[in-house]
Amino acid sequence: YVPMRAGIVKFDTIKPSQEAGGRVQASYGSYGSVAIDGGVGGAINDIASFRVSALYQHRDDYVDNTYTGPSADGTVAPRKNAMGGFDDRNVRAQLLLQPTENFSLLASAHARDYDGTSTLFLRGAVTKGSNKTDVARDRVAYDEADNNPQAYKTYGGSVKAVYDFGDLSLTSITAYETTSGYSRGDTDGGAAANFPVNGVANGYGQSMGQIRDLDQWTQEIRLANGDDNRLKWQVGAFYFDGRDTTDFYQRAWFLQGNARNPNNWVRLRNVNTSWAGFGQVSYEVTDKFTLTAGLRQTRDEKHTRLLKTADTAAGVVTYKGRTDVEMADTTPSWDVSAMYAFNPQFSVYARVARGFRGPTIQGRSAVFNADFTTADSETILSWEAGIKSSLWDNRLRVNAAAFTYVVNDIQLNGNDSDGNGVLFNADKAKAYGLEADMELRPIPNLSLSAGVSLLHSEIQDDRVYAQVCALNGAVVCTVNDPTIKVGANTFAQINGNPLPNAPKYNINLAARYDVPVNDSDVFFVSTDWNKQGYTSFVLYDSAEFNSKGSFEGGLKLGYSGNYGAWEVALFARNITNEKNLKGVIENYMAAVYNEPRTVGVSLNMNW
Description:
With 607 residues, the chain is an all-beta fold. It has 1 helix and 38 strands. The chain has one helix at residues 251-254; strands spanning 21-29, 33-43, 48-59, 63-65, 79-83, 86-97, 103-117, 139-140, 149-164, 168-185, 207-225, 231-250, 265-284, 289-308, 324-343, 346-357, 360-362, 373-375, 378-391, 396-408, 411-415, 421-425, 428-440, 446-460, 465-467, 470-471, 474-475, 483-486, 489-493, 505-516, 522-532, 535-536, 546-547, 550-561, 566-573, 581-585, 590-593, 598-606.
């Protein structure tokens, strides 16, 4: 958990243009991996242009299911190459209309069809007292869940219209997205018969979430003045409407014979509407000094209804919790920043910002006959200062920033005294850190880059406890925090602990060296590496559920011709075949690993 420091995430894609052109990238590698990514576009006539792009990715199943016993739900095992593969098909079409110099309209439509394997948990891969794991990545022993299938279909589109009045421009963006699909998994990560207690199979678990239908509409409209003004401004409004019908199924629904409970599932209807008004002003006080301020007021409303309860096989309703929950909040967000450019190659900046995340409702707990849980809005106040530079005749670029932030009423996930998942608010979390990146071309044909981030985070609330790893009432891991018992369950105090999934440091290194063949062609070799510092996967401090010093590297050796118009290369990802812990299921001491080493060949073409 690393909150955004009141910023944005932006994706830029290739737009249609009057100039004809295209590209294609293809690769083939280990496990029958195939990737084909391409696009082509150009002019239809003087006012219209298009672009069509597609992405196809495939990997063969490579994980064996070695389980040899009976299955209560009919899962076929043992089975070689039972899971781990996927097929991912994507297509997008764009149409750009520019009937006048003042008006443009960009229409886009896309679709995705995915089927593959849900997350694989490896039960018993984590050994008590250590975070080291050494269980094979290509073998599991699953007695249930039909070898972890999942599939999703997504369709969507958007229309962006811009009218330029001269000194003002009006922009409207309308978008729609719909998806459906399911994900099923053996959530205990193994076969219960392989982990007996007093000779009895222990720890069955499987579940499935199914999005019956999800529909999202967004509408943004904004008015802005021209970029050539010393005083730049924009005002606008944003609306979001999201609605979904989602089912959650538990183990008894899948069983065969008399053990099956056809009523062991729930259906939820979720509605989320949000609207906001915003404005931003930027003023060039001098040629070197710029001030910027922005304000946004947001209304966020959520409504969850339980349409079907999880009943007994005879149809008896046993659920006693709420079936209709609504939450709403109206909260301002803002930011103020200043930038001073000493010269075109060196500038400094500072920024303070406030953001928020709206209230959250978790209704899935109803499948366990537990009441809905909720969390109120959280807010974040962040401070940041840094430099941007381009030095040594543009051969060296260095950017760096120091930051600190406080998240008040932070939303966290844990478990209640019955072991059911819950949402809750802790008082606050504080963090501070440093980020820096560098690009260097020390000699011709050699380029180096590096990035580093340092982060210290901690939860601050001495009243909050999190349920720890336990199975059949016994704690199965090593808990380093103070603990208390509530009934049969053990809880750890999490005050002072780091945020989950927030690495203490991240280091990225990359290098490329070119060997010119002639004016247009080069041989090249490139490599990139990432190393991650201490990362806890849970709220409490344990000896097992963390990673420290994990790293991965890649290597590419290739030939680029005709000034980069085409390229052929050999590549390797996770070249040292590191087995890094990426997640855990605590009570089953189950591990989630990173991807295995992949070696292959790639071909790129541009025209």
